[in-house]
Design brief:
With about 100 residues, the chain is α/β, with parallel strands linked by helices. The chain has helices spanning about 5-15, 35-45, 55, 65-75, and strands at about 25-30, 50, 85-90, 95-100. It has a 4-stranded mixed beta sheet with strand order 2-1-3-4. Helix 1 (about 5-15) crosses helix 2 (about 35-45). The protein is globular and about 30 Å long. The mean pLDDT is about 95.
């Protein structure tokens, strides 16, 4: 997962016709803070732009992305028009990514 997550996020951003600078938020499966820090570093995204709640809830498995997104929207972080690059992964054997425009 450590190596694949940044690569699949970069591919999704590129496929969306965007660059990393266009991305407002990075949202990853909340499995491990080190994976999120590594992905942000490789993608050159400041950790202030990484949506995370792992420190509060731990790994919430398949619910981690929607839970973190809902929380960020409720807190007013994510706003209409924001571009969010997201990726999920499981056991290092599967992964997927999407780029969305919120609202």
């Amino acid at each position: 997962a450590v190596n694949e997550v940044p690569a699949v996020v970069a591919e999704a951003i590129n496929n969306a016709g965007l660059t990393v600078k266009d991305v407002d938020w990075l949202l990853l499966h909340q499995a491990n803070i080190r994976i999120m820090e590594h992905a942000a570093d490789v993608l050159d995204i400041d950790m202030d732009r990484v949506l995370r709640n792992i420190d509060e809830y731990g790994n919430t498995s398949a619910g981690s992305i929607p839970l973190a997104l809902a929380e960020a929207v409720r807190q007013g972080k994510v706003k209409k028009g924001d571009i969010i690059a997201m990726a999920g992964f499981g056991a290092g054997l599967s992964w997927g990514a999407a780029v969305i425009k919120w609202g």
